[in-house]
Amino acid sequence: MTTTAAALLALLVGAVIGAGIAVVIxxxxxxxxxxRAQVSRAIPEGIQExxxxxxxxxAIVDASLTVLASSPAAAPYGIVEAVALTADELRQVSRKARxxxxxxxxxxxxxxxxxxxxxxxxxxxxxxxxxxxxLLVLRDITERERVEQMRxxxxxxxxxxxxxxxxxxxxxxxxxxxxxxxxxxxxxxxxRLTGEAQRLASLTSRIMNLSRLQASDELTEMxxxxxxxxxxxxxxxSLIQAAAASVEIVRGGDRDLYVSGDAQVLSEALSNLITNAxxxxxxxxxxxxxxxxxxxxxxxxxxxxxxGIPEADQQRIFExxxxxxxxxxxxxxxxxxxxxxVKHAVQRHxxxxxxxxxPGRGSTFTIVLPLIxxxxxxxxxxxxxxxxxxxxxxxxxx
Length: 398
Description:
Blueprint: H1 2-39, H2 47-52, E1 58-61, E2 67-70, H3 88-99, E3 103-112, E4 118-128, E5 134-140, H4 142-178, H5 183-214, E6 223-226, H6 227-244, E7 248-253, E8 258-261, H7 263-279, E9 286-294, E10 297-304, H8 311-314, H9 326-332, H10 338-348, E11 352-358, E12 362-370, H11 380-393
């Protein structure tokens, strides 16, 4: 019994000692791995492949802020493998994530591209991957911020523009009520009230048109549109204004050209340009409307010999509610939305609007649209053949 007990005791002591040694070895190995991790610059398996497949700019940087791996989209921001981060903002957010033992998010501007570089607004999220490695992911929010700013400006400008005619209508209504016993004054106030109501209706209509053009929905009335049809419609809509201003509209250029689009939208856009040209032209002058085919596009130019647009205003002329001549706009009833409508209408048709202007010499606005082939039924030979077939069906064999 004594021998057996001693053997069991020895076995137990051996097991305890073995377990202790195993624990010590395990703790030593873990401490070794932890120490290696503290100084290791090895990228965890799979991360580099993920980075190379990302569309957003992203990178892994070490404690010295050197880029170990990056996505292709990061290069334009100066984030290149084996090169240290140069942007102070990126360096700061990387340190912040590493020191806080977690995630850091910052929004700031970075330069993108080579000279001339452009400033972009980005949101950067830095995540600590290991004691020495940090993951940076950039999200370009420039366009989102621009659209949001446009929305805020649109609401503010619309409220401001609507306030003037609404206030005038209210005051004129009170004036009519006060002058109820004076028919002559009532007629004067009623006439002014009608003018303000028309101005309010015009402004509301243009705001709705611009909102429709800026919507993401596709244009619903797209078809093969004769440019001649668009010009005729736009010119006829402006004849009364031209006659009142003693301005002659002269049309010239190529004929029988076609574009794909919404005829009404294009006609309204061209009418806006002609209306502006008339409003800014002197009495007895001419407004030219010309059409020219250039390779695979159609150019429709509206030219006046008016006051012209200063160079400082030419970059902003297509902004909503922007006016170069506030006094003239008030006299002519301008809303400041016409050129913005033109720009968006043409862009929705895959084209662009160009401007040439010199103060004192006049302005030329050119609408550029993709050219399409004339439909078969519109070609002269096909029309003649079609008419003969029709005559044959009717029994006319001349």
